[in-house]
Amino acid sequence: WGFYAFFKKSLPIGPNQGFLLEVLILLVPALAYLGWLSSIGENHFLDSPRNAWMLIGTGAVTAVPLILYANGAKGLQLSTIGILQYIAPTMIFLIAVFAFGEVFGPARAIAFPMIWAALAIYSYSLLRTRKQNRQK
């Protein structure tokens, strides 16, 4: 994700045009894969209208957050984007533990707080540096 964020931020085109470029690049292998599945008789994506609409719907559900991310990434510093990218895995981890009863062993009990402590220290130093730069 770090490289993706850097790539998105450094492109000399707008976020929506960049997203369109990504989709067009990935369209070729996706269509080739669907064609290959059809050729071997395993294309269950398009065997009924319901499945076809579900495939189209998953594309739309995936596209909306990516477009929002692309538009937001242009206005943020890479360090901020990096910190924000810890939110989704943390939420997945918390849902796994509290909603699905995932085992929270000793290794995780040590690693999880250490990761967030490191993020807190980094965020604090980043904010402190920004505050000092504004005062100059």
Total of DSSP H or I helical runs spanning 4+ residues: 6
| Structural class by SSE content | mainly alpha
What best-fitting shape do the alpha-carbon axes yield?
Answer: flat
What share of residues are in beta strands?
Answer: under 5%
Low-confidence stretches: none
**Total domain count:** 2
The number of E-state strands comes to 0
Major sheet characteristics: none
Provide an overview of this structure:
- With 136 residues, this protein is an all-alpha fold.
- It has two domains: 1-76, no CATH class; 86-136.
- It is 79% helix and 0% strand.
- The protein has six helices and no strands.
- It has helices at 2-10, 15-39, 49-73, 78-84, 87-98, 106-135.
- α2 (15-39) runs antiparallel to α3.
- The longest helix has 30 residues, at 106-135.
- The chain is flat and about 65 Å long.
- The two termini are 33 Å apart.
How would you describe this structure in keywords?
136 residues, mainly alpha, 2 domains, 79% helix
